[in-house]
Every structure is written in structure tokens, then in C-alpha cells.
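Input C-alpha cells:
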């Protein structure tokens, strides 16, 4: 494997046979994504798009952990900017605009962005250990990455509402049934499955792959960008709400939040 320079030690980037492997490498923090990791991922996707030697990209985690989502402490210290810029939005923009095949392999928890980024992948493989969750409402926030648009389109309003409004974990079998994944493979077979799939993609005509992906994504592109801007604006606004302060305090104090005290407050 040829190493790609990475802006973060927690994002490993290696290229082999035309496939760039991006590995979340912060197992001590359950691969919680920091602003530095978001910046590195955005940079890697941008470089991969521009590099003719890269024909496909894989995003994977560590054995037993894909990502626990945002690093909450880092997120508090480095919140998204009011104008919608910053590393998080840079990563989401790079994810949406990435024009080559993007493949993900998930073993263990995939929380928040760990799940919503899968909506922008072309192929997704899970292990039986995969546990997905979208806890935006639980944290008094709103969905991101265009998930408020993409999830209802993928699985219908009723199922999407259950995932977003209740924010419970769901397993690999449910994710497969809902259309979030292509297959479930054994944990010790996940890397091999990703390798086989991306080798096949790398052997395909790249021009045709890119055009085909573009055709599939194009009808929603403008709408997706509009929704993501709206999500981002509301997300930043919610960070200053009393409900979100309570949610974060409860998280750090390891207790259940009390949102009923804000029942009469304006949204």
C-alpha cells in the first residue's frame, strides 16, 4: 500500500491498486470524529476525486467500532460556524460531491454521522455486530448530511420518522431490510469483501462508473444541497437552545435529560 499524507493521525490513508482506503483510527475514543478528522476526510476525498490514479474509495473503522459520531467535547469547543462553514460542512460537501465509487464497511457502532455518511456511499457492507443510531433529536439537535431528505426517500416517512424521532439503535438485519446496506458479512470477512468489491470497481471503466453515479445522483442534487443548508442553519441555531444545553449537560453527567421543563418554550 502506498501511504497518502493525512492531516490527522486519526485518519489513515493508503492507496492500493487504484483504491484509496480511509480508516478511522481513533479506537480509544470509539472513532469519535473531531474537527481535525473531518478536515482530513474532506481533504482526502478532494484529493481522491482529482487524482486519476484513484478509481474508488473505501471508508472503514476499526474491528468492532465504526464511529460513535461527533466527539461531543471537541464539538463544544469547535462548534460549526454560523455561516455554515468549517471542517464538518467541508466534509459533508466533499461527501455529497464525490464523483467516484465510494464504499463503506461497518463493524460495531455507527452513530450519528457514522450512519448518515452511509447514505452517500454507493455500496455498504455491515457485519452482524453493526449497530446504527441517529440520536439527533435525543441531543435536542436536528438531522444532518441531508438525512431528513434521504431517509424518507429511501424507506418511507413512517420508518424514517421512527429512526429520527426516537433515535434508538437498530441492528444490521434492520439496516439491510431498510435499504441502508448491500449485504451482511462476518466480521473476519469484512475487509476481504471490501477488497473484492473495490477491485471489481477499479477494473471497470472509470468514465462509465462516474457518469452512471452522476446520473443516479443528479435528480436530487439541487434539492439535497438546499436541504443540507437548511439542516445546517437549524443545527447551529439549536446549539444555543436551552434544550441542547440540557442534553449535553446530561451526557457529561451520565444522566437522563429533562426536556419537559422546556415544554412551554418556543422552538
Amino acid at each position: 500500500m502506498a501511504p497518502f499524507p493525512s492531516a490527522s493521525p486519526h485518519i489513515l490513508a493508503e492507496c492500493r491498486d487504484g483504491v484509496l482506503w480511509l480508516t478511522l483510527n481513533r479506537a480509544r475514543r470509539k472513532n469519535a470524529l473531531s474537527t481535525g478528522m473531518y478536515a482530513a476526510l474532506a481533504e482526502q476525498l478532494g484529493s481522491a476525486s482529482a487524482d486519476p490514479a484513484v478509481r474508488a474509495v473505501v471508508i472503514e473503522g476499526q474491528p468492532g467500532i465504526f464511529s460513535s459520531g461527533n466527539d461531543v467535547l471537541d464539538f463544544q469547543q469547535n462548534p460549526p460556524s454560523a455561516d455554515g462553514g468549517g471542517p464538518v460542512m467541508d466534509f459533508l460537501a466533499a461527501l455529497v460531491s464525490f464523483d467516484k465509487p465510494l464504499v463503506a464497511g461497518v463493524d460495531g457502532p455507527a452513530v450519528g454521522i457514522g450512519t448518515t455518511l452511509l447514505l452517500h456511499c454507493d455500496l455498504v457492507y455491515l457485519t452482524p455486530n453493526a449497530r446504527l443510531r441517529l440520536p439527533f433529536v435525543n441531543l435536542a439537535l436536528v438531522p444532518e448530511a441531508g438525512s431528513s431528505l434521504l431517509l424518507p426517500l429511501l424507506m418511507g416517512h413512517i420508518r424514517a420518522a421512527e429512526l429520527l424521532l426516537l433515535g434508538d439503535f437498530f441492528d444490521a438485519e434492520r439496516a439491510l431490510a431498510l435499504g441502508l446496506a448491500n449485504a451482511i458479512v462476518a466480521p473476519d470477512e469484512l475487509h476481504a469483501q471490501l477488497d473484492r468489491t473495490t477491485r471489481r470497481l477499479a477494473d471497470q471503466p472509470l468514465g462509465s462508473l462516474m457518469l452512471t453515479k452522476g446520473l443516479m445522483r443528479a435528480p436530487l442534487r439541487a434539492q439535497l444541497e438546499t436541504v443540507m443548508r437548511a439542516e445546517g442553519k437549524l443545527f447551529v441555531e439549536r446549539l444555543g437552545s436551552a434544550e441542547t444545553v440540557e442534553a449535553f449537560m446530561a451526557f457529561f453527567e451520565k444522566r437522563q435529560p429533562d426536556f419537559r421543563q422546556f415544554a412551554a418554550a418556543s422552538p
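The chain has ten helices and ten strands. The chain has one domain: 2-188.
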